[in-house]
Amino acid sequence: MKSYAPEPFVNFADETVRTQFDHELQHVLQKLDRTYPLVIGGREIYTDAQCVSYNPANLSQVIGRVSQATRAHVDEAFQNAAETFKTWSRKSAEQRALYLFKAAAIIRRRKHEFSSWLLLEAGKTRPEADADTAECIDFLEYYGRQILTLAERGKETLVPYAGEDNQLHYIPLGVGVVIPPWNFPLAIMAGMTAASIVAGNTVLLKPASQTPVIAYKFLEVLKEAGLPDGVVNFVPGDVLEIGDYLVDHKMTRFISFTGSQRIGMRIYERASKVHDGQIWLKRVIAEMGGKDAIIVDADADLDAAAQAIVASAFNFSGQKCSACSRAIVHEAVYDDVLARVIERTKNLSVGNPGDPASIVGPVIDQKAYDKIQSYIELGKTEGRLVCGGTQTATPGYFVNPTIFADVAPNARISREEVFGPFLAFTKASSFTEAIEFANQTEFGLTGSVFTRNRDHIEEARATFHVGNLYFNRKSTGALVGVHPFGGFNMSGTDSKAGGPDYLMLFTQPKLSSEVL
Length: 516
Ligand code: NAP
Description:
This protein is an alpha/beta fold. The chain contains 15 helices and 19 strands. The strands form 5 sheets. Strands 14-15-16-13-12-17-18 form a 7-stranded mixed sheet, with helices on both faces. Strand 17, helix 15 (about 455-465) and strand 18 (about 470) form a beta-alpha-beta unit. The protein is globular, with a radius of gyration of 23 Å. GO terms for molecular function: L-glutamate gamma-semialdehyde dehydrogenase activity; proline dehydrogenase activity.
């Protein structure tokens, strides 16, 4: 088997690639507005109730209509998953990994098709969609290899003891519930699902309501790869009907959640209650929000810093948990960096990602749009509006990239996650103060530091309290296996997705000791 390496990104500067992509996009456009079922134990179930998924850049375009699970469907899915667990959990790590490798190969062959769905359903530009698809392939390839390593680790790590054969087996937990967000609707959804099942668990997958069609497309891939029925049960549904129900269910053994702090806390709290008939403590893997800062030191490469701030803050309209939403800049270079960032931001073209010239696409839905608008209004009372803050003329949920200057480190717009193209600039009188400001939030996900000062690099390494700390580069763009991802404090349980310890979270070690 080849060793793992991240999937290369597509080069959209190449005209042949652009033509191939456009061809696929046309093909996908022919498949819009279809109806999709729930999938329980391999059985497709169509319901009258449907979730309608729209293109956030063009609200007249329906991406698909997806059936909605009731509590009775959830019960049926739990029964199916529990039954399937009996056989799936007994398959070898090699057998399970093979399904992931097959799924990766299928998606790699149909890369532009998946990226086209991402462009249409999540509003991603071509490069952003391609990165999402590449990361999905990476998770499949990486976790497929990691489970083999974990199986070996159990055999090798124990201290030899005369007269005994001692083994540690990392066995699966049981039936899990996978609850992904909409912002990496392919990569994160597939990664959370793949990690769960390759470790030997079976799952109920409840996709995000904004992006259920992409999730169904992944289900199709798993089916094509030959994954046995009932290993992944697809239960999209209204959270008011099935959200708490999934979490509270006595058959839920673990919950793998990625999303907002508010929902993560709710799930964490509810999962701690032991229900009648439940014979385990539920495990919760919860990856939540961020309020990520880029610090610029007095001696930094200012152009590189400005470029990184703009890319981290505004690509995919700032809708990444790792997006830069605060620039904390040394007073000696504050005005200079601010001017460079404003200049670059004004050159970003906002528009439908269907147009290759668009750099900033829409935000995901009306709720996100309204939330960002309310933070823009708040920003006007907490800072100086220096860019954006205006409505766009484009139909769809478009927000002009917005920058506020001279924002206090304890302002609400310095501390709360906005999750849109929204950036606050704060001035610091020293490097140490910049780190203090950066740490003044309850989150701790990503952070970047631009400096040429070796002492400052070491100071930040020791004191900048984030799960993913980057030097002289942007705060987004973690690569599977290269930059294991997860945050501290209210950013979650720091599971480090795409890292060597991640699969452990989906297993429990069992010791067996045999007298020889
Ligand atoms: P969200 O509103 O918290 O939703 C996340 C998932 O939870 C969705 O599938 C949602 O379903 C579901 N959900 C909502 N209420 C629920 C309930 N009561 N019980 C069970 N499930 C429930 O987050 P989002 O808007 O999709 O995603 C954006 C957030 O994710 C941001 O805060 C971002 O920072 C964070 N994020 C974090 C990471 C990370 O690795 N740390 C990565 C990506 C995103 P519905 O869609 O049906 O409501």
